[in-house]
């Protein structure tokens, strides 16, 4: 009887001695698990959680006309050459009462527009306000108490900091409507970008290597604090993605959005197309300068025609400020609105200079 009792007492002593060690091992395991879980929920994860509920999918339908090829076999039948083409983009809530910011090229010209939230709610768009100068638009839906993400300032953007692009590049193709997230860094700020040759330049753009797919256009660009710092606009591409995307700075975007909401679409029409001059063009046209903006189109019955402007005229001054290029003229008109009057100095031919006034009218494309 003495031996079993002795063994029992010995086991009890060993157990009491080992218990703190076992408890410590369990605590260490728990601490490691907690540390890993904390590291997974990093700044990027938290930033996405802060913004994602406000990111929407913007679905559009466009009517497109295609050429008809007559065929005697089908002559008795009426064949339609119009097709309905779906489109997709992104946006994010900027006011609780139903205003959503996006890119103008996402909604411009669409016959149907509807918005879908990550939780599945769908809204038809009541109104659209467009500013093509900044490639921005505001769409209005019948909703209230919407979640608005924290809006940052593009003035504090740091080159090299994390950049997070959110959007819905696949729209309704996925049953899960949560936005797609891509991550990169801020590559540059205040970029001047001309997407295609002879197109106007976009100024003050934020450059990032976070992937901006076509359906991401209009979605928010976010920093690691979960604050919106830009509106995803387009990628620079030469047949494929080069990892270079651009966003409109949020300071400019919010300023334009507020003007659109308060005043409606302020898109104006000049009826003019302008391009930069070079020595070859100037010599061909007999123009004695390579500075200014060459007028290449004057639409009939347009403000430009009313101002007496002709094809081949060169705009050398706007509101008493010299213009060296077409971009300078675009900048002079960047914050203009319907009804504004601009004083132009025009060079025509080999030295004829005259002044005229251009009165901006409503853009007929917004009708």
Describe this protein's structure:
With 367 residues, this protein is of the alpha+beta class. It folds into 2 domains: 39-265, Beta Barrel (Thrombin, subunit H), CATH 2.40.10; 268-366, Roll (Pdz3 Domain), CATH 2.30.42.10. It has 7 helices and 20 strands. A hairpin with a 3-residue loop joins strand 18 (341-348) and strand 19 (352-359). The mean pLDDT is 83.
Reconstruct the topology from this structure:
Elements: H1 2-40, H2 43-51, E1 55-65, E2 82-95, E3 99-102, H3 104-107, E4 112-116, E5 122-131, E6 136-141, E7 162-167, E8 180-193, E9 202-208, E10 220-222, E11 228-237, E12 241-249, H4 250-263, E13 268-269, E14 272-276, H5 279-285, E15 293-298, H6 303-306, E16 314-318, E17 321-322, H7 326-332, E18 341-348, E19 352-359, E20 361-362
Antiparallel strand pairs: 1-2, 1-4, 2-3, 3-6, 4-5, 5-6, 7-8, 7-10, 8-9, 9-12, 10-11, 11-12, 13-20, 14-15, 15-16, 16-17, 16-18, 18-19
């Amino acid at each position: 009887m003495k031996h079993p009792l002795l063994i029992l007492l010995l086991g009890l002593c060993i157990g009491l001695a080992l218990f703190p060690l076992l408890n410590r091992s369990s605590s260490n395991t728990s601490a490691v698990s907690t540390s890993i879980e904390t590291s997974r929920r990093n700044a990027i994860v938290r930033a996405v959680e802060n913004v994602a509920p406000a990111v929407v999918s913007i679905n559009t339908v466009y009517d497109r006309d295609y050429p008809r090829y007559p065929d005697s076999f089908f002559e008795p039948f009426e064949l339609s050459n119009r097709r309905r083409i779906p489109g997709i983009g992104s946006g994010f809530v900027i006011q609780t009462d139903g205003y959503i910011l996006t890119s103008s090229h996402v909604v411009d010209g669409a016959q149907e527009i509807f918005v879908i939230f990550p939780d599945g709610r769908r809204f038809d768009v009541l109104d659209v306000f467009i500013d093509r100068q900044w490639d921005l638009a505001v769409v209005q839906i019948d909703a209230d108490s919407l979640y608005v993400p924290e809006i940052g300032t593009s003035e504090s953007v740091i080159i090299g900091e994390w950049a997070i692009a959110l959007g819905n590049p696949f729209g309704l193709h996925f049953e899960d409507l949560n936005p797609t997230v891509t991550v990169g860094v801020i590559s540059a700020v205040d970029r001047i970008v001309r997407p295609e040759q002879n197109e106007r330049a976009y100024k003050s753009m934020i450059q990032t290597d976070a992937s901006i797919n076509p359906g991401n256009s209009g979605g928010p660009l976010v920093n690691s604090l979960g604050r919106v710092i830009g509106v995803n606009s387009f990628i620079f591409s030469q047949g494929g993605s080069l990892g270079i995307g651009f966003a409109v700075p949020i300071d400019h975007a919010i300023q334009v959005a507020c003007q659109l909401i308060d005043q409606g679409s302020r898109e104006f029409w000049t009826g003019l197309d302008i391009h930069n001059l070079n020595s070859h063009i100037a010599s061909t046209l007999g123009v004695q300068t390579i500075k200014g903006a060459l007028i290449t189109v004057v639409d009939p019955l347009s403000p430009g025609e009313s101002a007496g402007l002709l094809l081949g005229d060169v705009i050398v001054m706007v509101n008493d400020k010299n213009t060296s290029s077409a971009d300078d003229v675009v900048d002079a008109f960047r914050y203009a609105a319907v009804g504004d009057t601009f004083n132009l100095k025009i060079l025509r031919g080999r030295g004829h200079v005259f002044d005229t006034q251009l009165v901006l009218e409503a853009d007929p494309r917004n009708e």
